[in-house]
Amino acid sequence: MDLEWNQGADLKARRESELGFEIIEIGAVRLDSDRNVADSFHEMIRPQVFHKMNEVTRELIHINMRQLRDCRDFASVAESFLEWCGSDYIFCTWGNTDLIELQRNMDYYNMTHMSEKPIVYYDVQKLFSIAFEDRKSRRSLEYAIDFLNIDKDIAFHRADADALYTAEILRRIEDASVFHNYSYDTYRLPQNKDDEIHARFDDYSKYISRAFPDKKDALNDSSVVSTECFICGSPTRRKIPWFTSNSKHYYSIVKCPAHGLIKCKIRIRKSASDESLYVVKTMKQATPEMVADIMQKRRNAKNARKERY
Ligand SMILES: [Zn+2]
Prior knowledge:
Nucleotidyltransferase, domain 5, 12 strands, alpha+beta, 11 helices, 32% helix, binds zinc ion
């Protein structure tokens, strides 16, 4: 799936609107279980919030307001789109922003929520990096298309074109283990402790907490700070207790009797839909370099504290 959106033409228009980005086009391609193209969806949307095209948007996507005048409104198109999706599907998007903006636009028009908890999806930009590059870099869609020698016979930055290009990249990933790396869209956070996410990937684990009103509440929660081994579930011994380097990131090193040193990292993040906070905790078996890095971070944090007093 790919979306195109417009934003306020000037600062005043942007400040006055509750909606940062107004979706003006939805494009999608359906791949079957063998990743063959089975169907497609494409529709442009009549704007109701911003009635002038932002300069950057216009130059990037080559859509003008006249083309959108006779289109259906967002709610009608989004409803058709979700109907087209059916009930058994997983979203695949280039990058991690489309699902956030889709849900934000749906909330703006008080539509029924797509989900009451985080949505599992594939970030194809991430999968491309894992399959073909270093796992960490994030490339443009055009870079990936060039890299894989895929024909560029249609212009980029339109929803139907970018959805098709994203599908073509997905089709070229041959190593099935790459598909272990699904993502969670956290626009809607886990509602309660039972819905919290405890995901296990090939070499690390990820925990996504429910929402907390503030950081103190989050850091007092036993699931947030717990450091049981992510591989065997055993209690661990604390080698370096939780400390913070910048009050957004917290680190700890623990030791499992069976699996050795484990690096634990907490990130405090702002909810995309309201003022609350949530926590993403990752755990990974620690190499000596990772341990040295954490120890350096702790020294830096201590020194910074001393300088302040
Ligand atoms: Zn263990």
